[in-house]
Amino acid sequence: MQAIKIPGSDDTPKVILDATAENPLFEISGRSLPEDVVAFYDPILEWLDEYAQKPLKKTIFNFKLEYFNTASSKLLLDILLKLEDMHQDGADVLVRWHFPDDDEDMEEAGEEYADIVEVPFEQVSYSID
Amino acid sequence: MVTKFKNILKICYSLKKCKFENHFQPKFTTKSQYHQTKNTVNSETALMKVFNPNRKNTNYARKYILAWAFFGLLLTLTVWTYEIFIKDLSQRFNDILNLHFNNPELFLIDILPLLFGFIAHRITRNYKEKIKNLLEDISQKDQLINKNTEFAKNIGKGDFSSLPTIISADDTIGNSLLLMRDNLVANYQKENEQNWIARGKEIIRDVLSHHTNIEILAYETLVSLINYTNTIQGAFYIYDDTEKKLINIASYAYNRKKYVNQEFRIGQGLVGQAAYEKDFIYRREIPDEYMSISSGILGTKKPKTILLVPLISDEKLQGVVEFASLDHDLDPPVIALIRELGEIIAQTLYTLKVNTQTENLLRESQELTKRLQKNEDDLRRNAEQMQRTQKELENSNRELASQIAEVEKGQNRLFALLQNASEVITIYDSDGIVKYVSPSVKSILGFDTDEMIGKNRFDRGESILQDAFNQLLREPHVPRTFEYHYQNKNKEQLWLETTGRNLLNNSAISGILFNTRDITVRKVAEKAQRMSGEMQALSENSPDLIIRIAPDGKFYYANPMISDYMGVTPIQVIKKGIDEININNQIKEIFRNVLTTVLESGKKFDAETLFKTDESERIIHLNAIPEYNKQREMETVLFVAHDITERKRIETEIEEKNKSITESINYAQRIQTAIIPDNDLIMRFLPKSFVMYKPRDVVSGDFPWFFENGDFVYIAAVDCTGHGVPGALLSFIGYFILNNIVDHDNTLNAGQILDKLHEQVRKTLKQDTPEANARDGMDIALCKINSRAKEIHYAGAHRPMYFCRGNEITQYKGDPKAVGGIPVKRGKKEDDFVNYAIKIETGDKIFIFSDGLPDQIGGEDGRKYQAKRIRDIIAEKNELSMPEYQEYFESDLLNWKGKYKQIDDILLIGIEF
Questions:
Q1: How confident is the model at residue A50 (pLDDT cuts 50, 70, 90)?
Q2: What is the β-pairing status of strands A92-100 and A121-126?
Q3: Which among A50, B433, B451, B685 is placed 20 to 30 Å from B810, CA to CA?
Q4: How far apart are CA B285 and CA B412, in angstroms?
Q5: Is B911 exposed, middle or buried (0-12, 13-18, 19+ CB in 10 A)?
Q6: Mean pLDDT to the nearest integer, B706-715
């Protein structure tokens, strides 16, 4: 399975989805306010659909976002819903939601998502300096 | 009489005073002062004489007594006469007697002349005594002054021995004169001593200048000094620099020389000590046992004093002189003289020493010359014999040298040939070890021959050499030639061509011979030619027009595209001037102008221009590049014309489309402005409020919403999904639905309004069907204000409200769900929006806002503005009025944003009740 590696920019997050590496990595980090949200997230959702067919024994999905706009929030929810599906299909899935320790918006967003989706969800704060 | 006496007293007093004053100037330091004082004393004496005569004084006293007695008699007679006249008595003696008996007091008057005379006598005698005492005093002083004058006169004459007999302590002048005498005597003595010393120096200088032999000089110096100073013995030691010893070279005792050549080391004995301390030693007590060590000149008779003086010149010890005397003490001038002479003698000794040395050297060199002369003769004889032998040798050598030179020349020629050859010749043995390499390897490959010989050069990775070598071994009769790329020792890339021959059977070579040539220049030329060929092909097939024009305007080259662009073939233009060819005048003009520009500036030029032909008109991007030869002269100008007509057309089209889009968006903005509440309207109902509204683009997804219905005022900060045009479209949906809800029913609380809004948005956007996929919707913070009841209702979808009372902030977070969009919790019933009812007081403030402000990137590290910053500002600046809050937030946002762009629409509403 081809890995997805998108470097981050001012408007788009950095995305790494690599199931074949020695240390598999599933991560979305940075800022998400793409001009066309659907175009940006479609390949990611497709990749997850394919991955869901044959997931690894353990999938740890990391969100480490500084900012995302309202449109992105819907797509992030879509990603989480896919993970929820995988979890309900019996895969071992853990979502790690990283947020800057001084950013209540990101913390609350994490709480909100955790409330909506039925998937093991870990909130992890980190400090920025 | 009385006045005269008073005068005398006055004079005496003034004299005394004068002497008293003299006390204070008693010392005569100069002769003239002395004379002055003497004159003063003389004039005093003269004054005294005027008032002195005794006899005259006695006459005055007698007259004085008689006068007073006479006056007493006259007074008696007068009284008598008066009485006679009064009593009218006759001139008789009896009458007078009767008168006395009648007036008994007249007896008293009769005694008057006697009484007067007696009183006058008493007074006179008192004065006389006093004057006598004074005169005695004066004469005594006079005598003293005369005596002192005499004394001073003698001193003036130079007779210092005369002495005033007795000088009393209060004789100031006398004492001063005595002091002066003593000083003069001391000076005279000192002068005598100086003269004596000077004379002594003169004598010794004379002695020193008359002798050059150091021993004679020492002895004569001793004799002269002993005679002059009345000492009895003397010794002269000179310091030997090399031995570090003091050697006695002369001594004098009772006119006999003795103890010559006695030696002392520095510090040894008195002599050595004087030398060590570099100072004179003067002793008046000479211990017996010390004598024999210290002094070499003391015989049977023991002297009383001894003086040792080191001879030092320029800090250097030259010797010591020693003198002994039978006197108990040497006169200080004697010591001074000898000490002063020390340096003079030392200087003379030093000069003498140098002279002696020079003399010795001269003598030695003379002897040496003599000896050398003798040796020279012997040598000359030997040399003549040797010369003969050498000539024979030289002849045979020359022959040998010419033979060697011949051989060397041949070798050098070969070496030079090999070194400067353009080929490297290498000979390998059958194992691939270099046996020989020609010196030219240095100039071509950069290696020294020593680096190559004895080594297997193939191990440097030149596999092509190895292959050729193996082939030559396999097929000895076939020579091999091959070309390859090579990096020499100086890291230069070379092209080499090597020809290999197997000459193992050739007895002179017996190896594999490689001839290697540097063919880099040829290769580069070949490449250049190939490249130019490729270039030619490129330009021939280029869709662009390529032309080369010489500075004189003649066409050098034109590719086939010229027919397309100008309607002429290459053959028609080549070697012709611009003016000679048949093309459109407008194109000619362009070429002429561009050529002139490039020729003048010498630089590349490019421009967009229009090419018109009979059939077409096209926009051309024309590049003109000057081409230089090696002499930096401009040879040709290359013109490349690229047809950009199509591109220009598309550009223009895009520009037009863009313009129309912008126009339509601008128009949309005008429409959107209509739904944004008028500030005046808001101010009418909420006089203390502000709306800070900053769309990211022309139209906005955020919008402030305001509605008024009866007792109620509704205000909301609405943030539709997205921004720009899609956001704006959603904002209209939100606006109309909200208006509709509150217009129909003003009893709904804020939470209920949001529930209705949610439902209707989903219905409008058709999100309530199962297959719906839209996630569009809006976040909102809504307040329903009842000013009369002093109450507000708040409900929020993802958007909070900050309620501020004093400096305390209460945060109402709003519900964690949006308005619109399909339900996010699949299969679960959604919760209704929560309504918060809050009682308000005057001075309470509320703030509602979209996420544009807290999410704005900025600051030093590109961080988010954060909701916390908004709360902090509200709390910390709680003394600000609403317009001041707006001003503060706007400038703070501007500072925060800095170089970052605005990422979303920004909306912040503040209200104070």
A1: very high
A2: parallel
A3: B685
A4: 98
A5: buried
A6: 91
Chain A residues within 8 A of B779 when measuring between CB atoms: 70
Q: Which residues contact B635 (CB under 8 A, 6 or more apart)?
A: B550, B551, B627, B628, B629
> Would you state the structure tokens that stand for residue A26, as one six-digit string?
């599933």
What residue type is assigned to position B359 of the chain? E
Whether the domain at B542-643 and the domain at B676-912 fall into the same CATH topology: no
* Residue B67 vs residues B1, B77, B109, B119: alpha-carbon distances, Å: 12, 15, 17, 12
Contact by Cβ (8 Å): B569, B563: yes
Return the percentage of chain B with pLDDT > 70, whole number.
87
Q: Does ipTM exceed 0.85?
A: no
Q: Provide the mean pLDDT of chain B.
A: 82
| Residues B542-643, CATH architecture | 2-Layer Sandwich (3.30)
Q: How far apart are CA B47 and CA B747, in angstroms?
A: 149
Contact list in B for residue A105 (CB cut-off 8 A) is 851, 854-855, 864, 866-867
Q: Is A114 on the interface with B (CB under 8 A)?
A: no
**Beta pairing partners, B105:** none
Contact (Cβ atoms closer than 8 angstroms) between residue B707 and residue B743: yes
Q: Is 60 exceeded by the pLDDT of residue B879? A: yes
B559 by Cβ neighbours in 10 Å (0-12 / 13-18 / 19+) ranks as buried
Grouping H, G, I as helix, E, B as strand and the rest as coil, residue B240 is strand
Domain boundaries of chain B, sorted by first residue:
2-157, 212-417, 421-524, 542-643, 676-912
Q: Are B785 and B712 in contact (CB under 8 A)?
A: yes
Q: Per the structure block, which two tokens stand in for B882?
A: 């609403």
Q: Are B730 and B776 a contacting pair, CB within 8 Å?
A: yes
> Rounded to whole angstroms, how far apart are CA atoms A125 and B441?
71
- The torsion angle over the Cα atoms of residues B28, B33, B35 and B39, rounded to 10 degrees, is -110
Check if the beta carbon of residue A51 is closer than 8 Å to that of residue A43. Answer: no
CB B668 within 8 A of CB B728: yes
CA dist B20 and B5 (Å) reads: 23
Domain B212-417 maps to which CATH number in 3.40.640.10, 3.40.50.10330, 3.30.479.30, 3.30.450.40? Answer: 3.30.450.40
Return the ∠ at Cα B373 (arms to B370 and B374), rounded to 5°: 95
**What are the DSSP E strand ranges found in B297-403?**
305-313, 316-325
User: How is chain A split into domains, by residue range?
Assistant: 26-102+116-129
* Cβ under 8 Å to B: A residues 27-86: 31, 33, 66-67, 69-71, 74, 77, 81
Chain B residues near residue A103 by CB distance under 8 angstroms = 864, 866
Task: Please determine, for residue B247, whether its predicted confidence score (pLDDT) is greater than 50.
Answer: yes
3-state secondary structure of A110: helix
Q: Do B851 and A116 touch (CB under 8 A)?
A: no
Cα distance between residue B737 and residue B756, in whole Å: 9
For the domain B676-912, what is the CATH superfamily, name and number? Answer: PPM-type phosphatase domain (3.60.40.10)
Q: Which of B721, B816, B854 sits opposite A71 (nearest CB)?
A: B721
The two three-digit tokens of residue B647, written as one number: 């591109």
Token code pair at residue B19:
């002497």
Contact list, B864 vs chain A (CB under 8 Å)? 66-67, 103, 105
pLDDT class of B25 with cuts at 50, 70, 90:
very low
Fold of domain B421-524: Beta-Lactamase (3.30.450)
Give every CB contact of residue B704 below 8 A, 6+ residues apart in sequence. Answer: B676, B677, B691, B693, B715, B716, B717, B718, B907, B909
pLDDT tens digits along A80-108: 999 999 999 888 999 999 998 888 888 98
- CA separation for the pair B754, B741 (Å, rounded): 9
Q: Which amino acid is residue B548, in one-letter code? A: R
Burial of A86 (0-12, 13-18, 19+ CB in 10 A): buried
